[in-house]
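User: I'll paste a sequence; please echo it back and then give the predicted structure.

Assistant: Echoing your sequence first, then the prediction.
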Amino acid sequence: MSQNREVIAVLIDGDNVIMDRVPTILSEVAKYGEITIAKVFLNKTSIEKWETFAAKYPVDPIWVPNNIKGKNSVDIALVIDAMIIACERADITGFCIAASDSDYARLAKRLKSKRKFVLGIGEAKTPDAFRTACSEFIEIGDLMLAPPPVVPLQPTPRTSTAVAKVSTDPVYELFIRAYTACRKGNAAIDEDWMQLRVIRDKMTSLDPAFSLDELHQPRKLAEKLQTLNGAGIIEIREIDGKHVTHEVRLLYFHQIEKFFDAFAYAADTLKFKDAQGWVLLALIGETLTKMFPEYNPLLYHGIKQRQLKKVVEKIILDYPGIMELEDSTQHPRIKMKMPS
């Protein structure tokens, strides 16, 4: 086992890893460090079952179309994603590649050449080429002999000063509000990625004074957001073309959207809100359960639903400006700024 606690990206080949073994894999990887990214790559034939699985476990399903008949593109997509993460996420120190295919041997060697810890997890049939290319390799069968309890995803360790810096910065708060307004209800967005120019324009509409700031330039705004990423939830990528385009997304945002849906239903449909727009947190919890019966009780960053107040407190730190918590009585209540 690696001597240091790693910050790990888990990449799973959904075509040659049995779905039911993924919880055990995540539990084993969590022994090595904090899991900040967990993705499963799959083709059309298996997307439905993996989407159902992802509703219960903290794994993002990535559908990869097979553009050439008879050729599986999953392994190519996994390799590309791994290299993008290795190049763009300096905080990621380790990778877990869950697969039993020798095609990933070269990827493992490449990641190790970039000083990344590589944990391979696969079946007993896994070729030696992949096994020996990894820093460490574990057979899934050995893990299944005594399956440990599921360990949820954990965020990258953060200091209180980093959290305070993020949550109080006006540019960050304006960005969060703008992203929320643009993202909410837009089903056409690819994996939550949006052009930064679109977010910038929304920031200007929310605060016209922003158009006078030097950060109005997409490149300057991208650089600013990178410095504010203490919460570890912003991803930014550049797409080369005639002009460089910046795209941005917020990790875990699909979980926050469920709060918007539950709050809107409880406040407007069930008429649970008071004259000031507050709704009891307990009612939000009940609404979440009724609206999303298959929703993973590990709502956000590994905090359980019965600790809903702690979930809200962490969301407020990571996504400032979209939610308020009033906790002066025995019955906490929340207010949300619905996107417009």
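Residues 6-144 form a domain with the Rossmann fold fold (CATH 3.40.50.1010). Residues 146-166 have pLDDT under 50 and may be disordered.
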